Amino acid sequence: MEQVLSPLAIAHQHVVFEEGLALDCGVHLPRLTVAYRTYGRLDAARANAVLVCHALTGDQYVAETHPLTGKPGWWEVLVGPGRAIDTERYFVISSNVLGGCMGSSGPRSPRGEGGDDQALWGTDFPPITIRDMVRAQRRLIAHLGIERLFAVIGGSMGGMQVLEWAATYPDAVFAAIPIATAAHHSAQNIAFHEVGRQAIFADPDWQGGRYWQSGRTPARGLAVARMVAHITYLSEQALTRKFGRRVRAGSSVLGPYSDIFEVESYLQHQGSSFVHRFDANSYLAITRAMDYFDLAAEHNDDLASAFAGTKTRFCLVSFSSDWLFPTSESRALVRALNRAAANVSFVEIETDKGHDAFLLDEPDLARALSGFLAGCAEHARLA
Amino acid sequence: MSLAARIAPLRHVAKNMRVDLDLIAGMIAPGTRVLDIGCGDGPLIAHLFRTKGCDARGIEIDMKEVTRAVARGLPVMQGDADIDLAHYPDGAFDYVVLSRTLQAVGRPRAVLRQMLRIGTRAVVSFPNFGHWLVRWQLLARGRMPMTPTWDRMWYETPNIHPCTIRDFFDLCHAEGYAVERWLAADEAGHRAPWRRAPWLANLFGEQAVFLLRAKR
Questions:
Q1: Distance from CA of B84 to the nearest CA of A (A)
Q2: Where is substrate annotated to bind (chain A) (predicted)?
Q3: Is domain A14-185+293-379 annotated with CATH 3.40.50.1820?
Q4: Which among A152, A290, A356, B136 counts the fewest CB atoms within 10 Å?
Q5: What is the pTM of this model?
Q6: Catalytic residue of the set A54, A282, A322, A330
Q7: Chain segment B163-195, per-residue pLDDT in tens
Q8: Does A226 carry a binding-site annotation?
Q9: Is A355 a catalytic residue?
Q10: Which domain holds residue B39?
């Protein structure tokens, strides 16, 4: 079994909570493992902690070389010494989400979580929500001896966690920065996720979700899911700028069965490199968690009441060419925060890079983040 | 500190910072909640926080200004006064400030109503279209005035709703707003001496600042 999943079976820094976790679905997860990384130093007052929440396919390796892929951390452009989220000033924490496949409890972890039962959860892993992910992070934060986070930051699904943090634990969040996100997953977003899930289900190697038993993983299905999702992360302008209608060198055969356009091989590369670092059942569990997310529904269909009386300082960021989490979604959040008389900053950053822009080197994003954090540090009287 | 001493340094930065900001700040009590509509990159917000400990926030329509303000650590959101004020609850602020923006909004009367719904008081400043030079130019030349204050051609000015000091008094009366304080000043921020005579202030003041409160 371990040989089969060997690429994923790396030792990740983690903490185990023996008491487990009560989930929104009603199931009590018997043991909870949270894998995490930290950067920088926690100050004496334990007041400079910044939690970075990752997106659907991200993980806790924010600002260091990834142990599996050997690539730089996914947010190294923004997190590090002297960067916008300065690890010389802030104590940065990032954990693998509940349901993930980088060491936290999820479909590919053993039911016994290190105990006697070594059988994997697989598709029996209980359905999870964004709020469950945040509850697991809350355990980690308490374990690290932190009562109040100076800031919680995240893009896309990470932004959903930021919103959930601010709504569920308002006193534990001084500043919240939800980037390129929304208060709920739209019908269009759910539809794209469903295409990805169906691609995984349709792969004969998925085998009802028990693929580890045969040693064949649903790589084709997962790759197609990634390809579809990747299109939604880019803008039409960005695809045109990068590839246009350029034809691959050496492709002379015209026909439906050969790769012709550069954009095709690009997408295929995105798909095939993804399957080496991600688990198909985790993909199913986490996309579902995103689809379930509806912050207003958790608060009597009134988004403003999710933030009633909040003292948290908010900074929302959207990107002009993001059509997956468009500016209108951020603006709806801003208006709900206005109704709650919350302290809110909001910028839309002009870029043609689509939803992906939050992961890329966008100077205006870096300036807004570092400025907002510095302003909050002044208000929090952070040294 | 005398008014002149307070204002003198502002003259050097008049091109960067609108000179009425100090006049506005003078009408705002320390430690209060303030919303600045059309705040630019946030000079008034920074000033009120640093010197008066106010919880000051801003709305600005121009995204470049907003990005600059947020990068300076100021709580500013991109928004449109004509639309976004409706989303705030009643009495959310002690003061709502509209600095040299009233003449540029689509529905000034509706914006004023929103200001005095979401704030206990409103501070409004605007360039005075009743200034003698404006009147003289229109009378003598028969063309739209071009002055240091009104310096854009009629076809490209954002100032679609200019008014005079007396017009504004009339509007306040019609809408039932109490004028708690008011003043007229020249472009450099020097306060005009015609405190008791609105018609004189209307002739010689280049800009005006009003502190309003909704009558019960």
A1: 7
A2: 226, 356
A3: yes
A4: B136
A5: 0.91
A6: A322
A7: 999 999 999 999 999 999 999 988 777 776 666
A8: yes
A9: yes
A10: 3-129+163-214
